[in-house]
Structure formats: C-alpha cells, structure tokens
C-alpha cells in the first residue's frame, strides 16, 4: 500500500508536499515550522509554545480568534502543537474550503506582526500559565517531561530545558521577542506545507503560488549549538521526585539512535516488544505474572537530532515500593541485556506496529502531518511509504545488537516518582482486594 | 503581500455516511456490515447490550470487570497465550463497558481478519475466568481508584456524578465501581454477569472496512458459532437527581494551584425529542472553541487554558456539565461568568452569527468524523445502542440545519436549570471558600481528605 506523493518548492523556499485521496470530500492542510523549544534563547524557556498561541491571535487580514472561527464555521477542525524540534499548525476542512485554510496559513506566515498587541500577548501568557498549571503543576507525574529533559541532557544542550517554560521566563516574554522570533523562524524557507485528501492538483498549486508566493524568504536562522552526544550516558543517572502522587512510577530512559536512522527501527521495535500492549515482555512479567506493576508502557521520543530517547514507563501496584519497583525493572532490563530478545517477540512487535501504521494513515490529518515530518527532517516526504518495509525488515539480530549496545547499566537514567505521603486509604484498598 | 481578499467556499462536494447492511443471523446475533475499501484494514466491534447500568446494586464495576476478564483464558489458551496469539496477528484489541453496553473491539489488517475473528469468537464464547486473573484485574482497578486521590480532573468528574445523582441511581457511582464495590466482587459475580447478559439476542456485531458484507457475514457466522443463544436482562435506569437545590461542594486540596470546576445538573436521555436543538444550543454555549464560555473564560479573562460544556448522552438522563480549571484566586469570578453565560443564553435569542457558526460547524465537520474504520464502527454502535433509525446519519445534517434560533432559546429555557446547579470545586478551600457567593451558587460544603 502506497500513498501518492508529489513535491515542489516555491522560489521563496517553501517546500510543498501533496497527496491526493478522493475517498471523502475532506482535505488536510499541515504546516511544520522547523523551530521548537530547542531554538529558544536563555531566559526565554516556553517561548516557542507561547508563540504558537500568538499565531491564533490574528494577522494582517484576520481578526483576533477569527482563525478558529473561520475554520470552525467552514466545518473544519484545527490546532497547533509545539515540540522540541518543530512547531506544527493544522486544519482538516471540507474540500470546498481548501482555499480558505491556505489563505489563513499564508496570511499569518506573511503578515502576523500587524496584528500583535501587548494586550493579546498578556492574555496568551496567562492562558499558557494556566496550561502549565493544568498539565504540569496540578497533574500527577505532570513534571515528567521537564524533569526527564534535565536528567538526560547536559546543561546548555538545546533539548535540556523545559518546553512549557518556567513562570518567570513566560513573564519576561515581550512583543520584541515575538517580532524577532517571527522574523527569524516563521519564514517560508523554514517551513513545509503538506496537503492531503480531496483536492485538484493543478488548482491547488495555483492557490499555493498565489497565496504563499509573495512571502519573502528569510535571512537564515542561527545554528543550534552542537547536539551530538555519545551513544550511552557512560554512567548511571537517577533522580527521586517526592511528589503529590498516589503510586510510585519509574521512567527509565535510554539514549537511543536518532529518528530515521537505520538503527532507529530496531530501537522502535525494542520499545514495542518491551511495552506495547498486553503481550509485551514487561506487561507479561511485571503486570501479569509478578503483579508488582499496575501498568506498563514504552515509547521513543522520535528526536531526529543529537540522540533519541527510549523510555520505559512502569507504575507500581499500591503494595510495591518505589525502590522495589526500580529493582524489579532493572532486573528485567538486565535479563534482556544479557539474554536478548526472541524471534517471536520481534515478530509480535512488528505485526502490531504495521497495523498501527496502516490505521494511522486513514486520517488525512495524520497523512499530512507525517509528510511534513519526513519533509522537514529528511527533505523526503516519500519516506512515508517506506516505513512498513523498514519495520518489516528489522531482524532479531539487529534488535539484539541494539539491546547489547544500549541497554547496559551505563545507559540508564531512572526518574522515580515517590508518593510524598502515604495515602491513608491505601491500607483499606489493599485489604479490600484481599491482598493484605 | 498576501492578498487581502478572503477566498469564498467552492461548490460543496457530496458526502454520504458509508452504506451498511443490517441483518439478523440465524442464531439471533444482529450483524451490521459497512464495506469501506480505503485501506486494507477491518474493525470488528462486538456490542453486548449490557453495560455498567446492568451492574447489580452494591456490585458496581461488575460489567467492567467482566469485559476485562473476557480475554483471560479459554480451555485451550491461558490469558498470556491468548494475548500472544492476537498480537502475533498484529491485532489492536480493546474491551470495556460503558454505561449502556459492553464492547470488544479489534482492528486488524484485512489479510488477518479471519484468524483474528475466529480467535475473538472462540475466546469470548468459552471464557474460563481464572480466579487469579480476576483478582489481578480487581487489584489493577483498585490502583486506578487510588490514583484518583491525587488526580484532580478525574476526582472532580467522579465527585460531580456523586453529588448529582440520587444514591439509588447507578450514575451516582463510578462506572467501573468504587473501592468498596470492586473489593467485594468475586469470580462468581463475573460468571453470573456473563451468563445472564452475553446472549445472542443481546449481541450486535459491527464489521467495517476492507471486506464485502457477504464475506463479513461468513467470517462472523463462522467465528460466533458457539455464542450463547437467548436474550439478555433488562436494564435498570434510575437517573433521579440527588437534590433540586443548588449547592457548592468543595473537595479541599490545600495548595492546589488551580481549581478544577464542574458545574451542571442532570441532563437529558439520548432519545429526547429535543436532541438537535439542545446539541446546537450547547455548541453555542460551550461546545466549540468559539463558544461563549470558552471565549469568555479563556480569551477575554485568561482565567483558564480552556472551558467547555457537554451533554453526556446516555439511555437515561446523563449529566450536563461545564468543565474548566482556573487559577485558584479567580475561582469565584470564573464561576460568576459561567452563571452569567447560562442565564444569558436562557434570557434572549442568540445572534444569527452564533447560530450559523454552530450549525455550519456541526454540518461541515460531519464527514471528518468518519475517516477511520473504528470511528464508523462507533457511529454504527450508537445506532444500535440507542435504537436510532437507519437513516439517522443520512438525515443528521438536515436535522441540524433545521434548528432555528427560537428552538435554541426554547432548549436553553427548558434544559438549563440555574436553580439546580451543582458546583464541584476540587481545589484549595482556604483560598476559594470565602470568596464564593452563596446567594448565586447555593450553600457551600467543604470536604476534607
């Protein structure tokens, strides 16, 4: 199964990818700007994400909040998101509204600044502070991402600081910062535009040339500091976080091959064999057989630069202490490191990944987002069609080489959440389950 | 310069919800099949007409525990082996119980469908419910309940249901059961629930994806040969409110940086004749990003990251709830704005602009909702669960389109009840309590620990 992919560049550097599919009258528009929290300057943590909010506050010909209103009035869905390496903006609309979606994206790429005001910045700053309270500060384990970044990356590494940002840095952000960030990073030559779904190729090319063509190329962006890191930590890292949580939970991170590299696929399969679904190694052993964990999963961050991270995430059962949890997971990882994985485990992981990959391509928005991702990181959106084959060709030998290189005790960073105070009802729960 | 000329919409392209065949198999199972050949995938959704509302009194959580126990072993395979067999086929598998039904859902490449469906049919026709696995699943549910103590969003939802419904309503208790009720469940309860509810006449199988209706029928007939025949049990629906008097319930979390707010009352059953006017009314009030409540609380006042309102549609009258999380210091003004918006939408006609925004959104977004085999299967399940007519999705957009401004005002007056609002605040009582106006919101009670 292959999806069609066409590409072209505008003179101003905008990279465009198109993928037609006429099974339903809907079309997805997706823009990736190659800028994320990694590009923030010192003292401005959280700015890339705050800036994403400002992109919904209008542009030269679009009123405040009108972007949302126009798309929703058209019967579309939309949003944006910020990550370490990129920021994306996307909408899926009925196909007769494609021109509107493209025009809105072009207007804010070309002429955002006339609409920016101190009042809008102040409002969005407060909205983002509330987002931080909601998603990070008032949520159990909500600090995981920022604590993990601090633990695994050296200070001054672009991935080391908080994505959502500190309250102080958010307070310090100014309209000048908005103007500078816009001029530096929100330029056509630093963006990819992908369109997937029901559209006419020739008409759409013309719209893109008309709307995005007049936008000036950027003047280049400052290079990121060196990001490469050795393949392993070279030491054990560990942080205990005493927090307002009910159950101990361990996030064990391994440095792993960057997204898109040959070895990445073996790492991704390893993460699936460890923690994807109920038949995975850790679920079977820690949840089903030993019954010391309530839940298990594993995932990769999919970072394309420096190093990727593979994370094993295990939540304890109430009667398991944080230290016992850590010991048991360590033992499982030691066992994997010394004995390796079996052919059946690798096949199971690949079969599940193949179904998930296929299922994800059903949605026009997902297709467009993946096209943008491959175009941004590798200048080659057609990689979207290579993924299933790449996974299918992963061998048990490759997986075991990866495991032997990356799962030793010189490459583990343990972030452990410990309940700050024993919850009173714990005893009652244990007794209620007949486990006491 | 980007052109200042806003593009106009082109001519609309036709869309129809996928065509489906609806039939009854000789053994009594209802089979709904929708061939959708976009990608080589199939979703099979087995729906049992028995959900959490079928839980025996005091045994809340039985439906959920039974659903979770279904794939824990047969006389041929133990649970671990069963998981292995499904996953070697790449099967994405999910089971659970909601208020009105139990579901077992697989999505798999079409080339693996026959094997995966056979495995599913065998597993759920002959479950052995091993005691050890049932005790483990109970312990996992108890761990989840414990997590709620420190999870303000889930805790607010749960407390809201508890304060909303009368004690004898199933809706007042968590759908997957409380620590007390789950602790009391036994293997016998699970087996009894299975034997009395998992019956052919209470079963609908929905097949959506890259397969013809004829082939789907053959696959399902073959896979469900051993499915128990007969009819299930009646549901017990009690949706009475706990009180008709407005009240405030503060669940005290000292030092919480935000207050999680839930404001609302008992709503309407899914089959209510005012469904469409109420849907449009809610879209204007709090159902969209551009709705009154979100624009007011987020974009005007910056009290929150987001605020929304929601009718939780069930067979019985589910909750109507406004949800948000605001900085602790602005809890009282945020509640004042929420109350103001409820009164405003009951007080006067909404503008033409607001009406068209809500309707255009609901009509336009319709095809975007059904991009995946799983989403189409869920939509067909909605038909089956609520007994909606076969042309429900074909007439959906016309039904939205025909809602008038007057009908929205009438829906707001009939179905929003400021005098009955229950307000739940999970937050720091020390900061919040004294700022609340009991005249607006009712008597305040603080719950510690």
Q: Can you give keywords for this protein?
A:
heterodimer, A: 436 residues, alpha+beta, Cytochrome Bc1 Complex, Chain A, domain 1, 2 domains, 6-stranded mixed beta sheet, 5-stranded mixed beta sheet, 16 helices, 11 strands, 42% helix, 19% strand, globular, B: 449 residues, 12 strands, 41% helix
Description:
The complex is a heterodimer of chains A (436) and B (449). With 436 residues, chain A is an alpha+beta fold. Chain A is 42% helix and 19% strand. Chain A has two domains: 6-212, Metalloenzyme, LuxS/M16 peptidase-like (Cytochrome Bc1 Complex, Chain A, domain 1); 235-432, Metalloenzyme, LuxS/M16 peptidase-like (Cytochrome Bc1 Complex, Chain A, domain 1), CATH 3.30.830. Chain A has a six-stranded mixed β-sheet, with helices on both faces. Chain A has a five-stranded mixed β-sheet with strand order 7-11-8-10-9, sandwiched between helices. Chain B folds into two domains: 21-223, Metalloenzyme, LuxS/M16 peptidase-like (Cytochrome Bc1 Complex, Chain A, domain 1, 2-Layer Sandwich); 247-448, Cytochrome Bc1 Complex, Chain A, domain 1. In chain B, 41% of the residues lie in helices and 18% in strands. Chain B has 17 helices and twelve strands. Chain B has helices at residues 62-69, 79-88, 113-125, 131-148, 152-164, 179-184, 187-197, 213-223, 275-287, 292-300, 331-347, 352-364, 373-386, 392-401, 405-415, 429-432, 438-441, and strands at 21-24, 30-35, 41-48, 92-97, 102-109, 203-209, 247-252, 258-266, 304-311, 319-327, 422-427, 443-448. The longest helix of chain B has 18 residues, at 131-148. The chains are: A alpha+beta (436), B alpha+beta (449). Chains A and B meet through helix 2, strand 5, helix 3, helix 4 and helix 8 of A and helix 2, strand 5, helix 4, helix 6 and helix 10 of B.
């Amino acid at each position: 199964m292959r999806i069609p992919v066409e590409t072209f560049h505008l003179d101003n550097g905008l990279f465009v990818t198109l993928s037609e599919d006429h099974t339903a009258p809907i079309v997805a528009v997706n823009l990736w700007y190659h800028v994320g929290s990694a590009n923030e300057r010192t003292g401005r943590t959280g700015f890339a994400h705050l800036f994403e909010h400002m992109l919904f506050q209008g542009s030269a010909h679009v009123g405040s909040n009108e972007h949302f209103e126009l798309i929703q009035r058209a019967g579309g869905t939309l949003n944006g998101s910020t990550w370490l390496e990129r920021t994306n903006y996307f909408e899926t609309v009925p196909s007769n509204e494609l021109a509107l979606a493209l025009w809105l994206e072009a207007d804010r790429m070309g002429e955002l600044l006339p609409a920016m005001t101190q009042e809008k910045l102040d409002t969005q700053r407060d909205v983002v502070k509330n987002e931080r309270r909601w998603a990070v500060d008032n949520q159990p384990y909500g600090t995981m991402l920022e604590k993990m970044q601090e633990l695994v990356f050296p200070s001054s590494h672009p991935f080391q600081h908080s994505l959502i940002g500190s309250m102080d840095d958010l307070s310090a952000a100014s309209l000048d910062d908005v103007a500078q960030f816009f001029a530096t990073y929100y330029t056509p030559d630093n963006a990819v535009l992908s369109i997937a779904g029901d559209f006419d190729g020739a008409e759409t090319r013309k719209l893109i040339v008309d709307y995005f063509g007049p936008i000036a190329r950027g003047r280049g962006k400052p290079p990121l500091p060196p990001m490469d890191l050795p393949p392993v930590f070279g030491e054990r890292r560990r942080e205990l976080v005493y927090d307002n949580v009910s159950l101990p939970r361990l996030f064990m991170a391994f440095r792993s091959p960057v997204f898109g590299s040959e070895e990445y696929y073996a790492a991704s399969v390893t993460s699936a064999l460890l923690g994807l679904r109920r038949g995975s190694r850790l679920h079977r052993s820690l949840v089903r057989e030993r019954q010391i964990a309530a839940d298990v999963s594993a995932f990769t961050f999919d970072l394309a630069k420096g190093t990727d991270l593979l994370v094993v995430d295990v939540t304890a059962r109430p009667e398991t202490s944080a230290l016992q949890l850590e010991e048991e997971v360590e033992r499982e990882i030691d066992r994997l490191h010394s004995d390796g994985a079996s052919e059946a485990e690798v096949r199971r992981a690949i079969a599940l990944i193949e179904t998930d990959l296929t299922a994800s391509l059903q949605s026009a928005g997902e297709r467009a987002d993946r096209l943008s991702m491959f175009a941004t990181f590798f200048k080659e959106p057609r990689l979207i069609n290579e993924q299933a084959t790449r996974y299918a060709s992963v061998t048990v030998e490759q997986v075991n080489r990866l495991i032997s290189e990356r799962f030793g005790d010189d490459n583990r960073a343990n972030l452990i959440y410990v309940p700050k105070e024993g919850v009173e009802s714990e005893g009652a729960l244990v007794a209620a389950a007949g486990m006491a | 310069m980007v052109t200042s000329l806003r593009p106009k919409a082109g001519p609309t392209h036709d869309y129809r919800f996928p065509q489906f065949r609806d039939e009854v198999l000789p053994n009594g199972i209802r089979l709904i099949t929708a061939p959708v050949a976009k990608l080589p995938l199939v979703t099979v959704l087995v729906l049992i007409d028995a959900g959490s509302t079928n839980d025996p009194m005091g045994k809340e959580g039985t439906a959920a525990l039974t659903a979770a126990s279904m794939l824990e072993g047969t006389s041929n395979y133990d649970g671990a082996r069963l998981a292995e067999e499904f996953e070697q086929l790449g099967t994405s598998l999910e089971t659970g119980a909601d208020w009105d039904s139990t579901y077992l859902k697989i999505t798999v490449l079409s080339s693996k469908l026959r094997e995966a469906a056979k495995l599913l049919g065998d597993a759920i026709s002959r479950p052995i419910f091993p005691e050890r696995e049932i005790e483990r699943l109970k312990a996992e549910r108890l761990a989840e309940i414990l997590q709620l103590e420190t999870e303000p969003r889930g805790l607010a939802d749960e407390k809201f249901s508890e304060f909303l419904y009368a004690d004898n309503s199933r809706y007042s208790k968590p759908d997957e059961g409380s620590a007390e009720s789950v602790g009391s469940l036994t293997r016998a309860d699970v087996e009894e629930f299975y034997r009395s509810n998992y019956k052919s006449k209470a079963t609908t199988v929905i097949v959506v994806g890259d397969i013809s209706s004829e082939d789907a029928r053959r696959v399902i007939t073959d896979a469900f040969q051993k499915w128990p025949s007969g009819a299930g049990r009646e549901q017990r629906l009690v949706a009475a409110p706990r009180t008709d008097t407005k009240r405030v319930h503060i669940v005290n979390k000292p030092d919480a940086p935000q207050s999680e707010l839930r404001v609302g009352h008992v709503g309407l059953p899914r089959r209510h004749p005012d469904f469409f006017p109420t849907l449009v009314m809610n879209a204007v009030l709090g159902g969209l990003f551009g709705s009154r409540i979100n624009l007011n609380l987020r974009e005007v006042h910056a009290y929150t990251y987001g605020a929304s309102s929601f009718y939780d549609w069930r067979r019985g009258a589910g909750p109507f709830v406004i949800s948000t999380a605001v900085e602790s210091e602005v809890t009282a003004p945020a509640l004042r704005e929420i109350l103001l918006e409820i009164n405003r939408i009951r007080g006067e006609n909404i503008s033409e602009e607001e009406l068209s925004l809500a309707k255009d959104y609901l009509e336009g977004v319709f095809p975007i909702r059904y991009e995946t085999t799983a989403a189409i299967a869920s939509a067909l399940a909605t038909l089956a669960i609520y007994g909606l007519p076969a042309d429900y999705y074909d007439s959906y957009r016309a039904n939205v389109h025909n809602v008038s401004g007057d009908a929205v005002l009438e829906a707001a007056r009939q179905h929003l009840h400021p005098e009955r609002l229950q307000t739940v605040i999970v937050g720091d009582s020390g900061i919040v309590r004294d700022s609340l106006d009991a005249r607006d919101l009712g008597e305040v009670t603080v719950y510690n620990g």
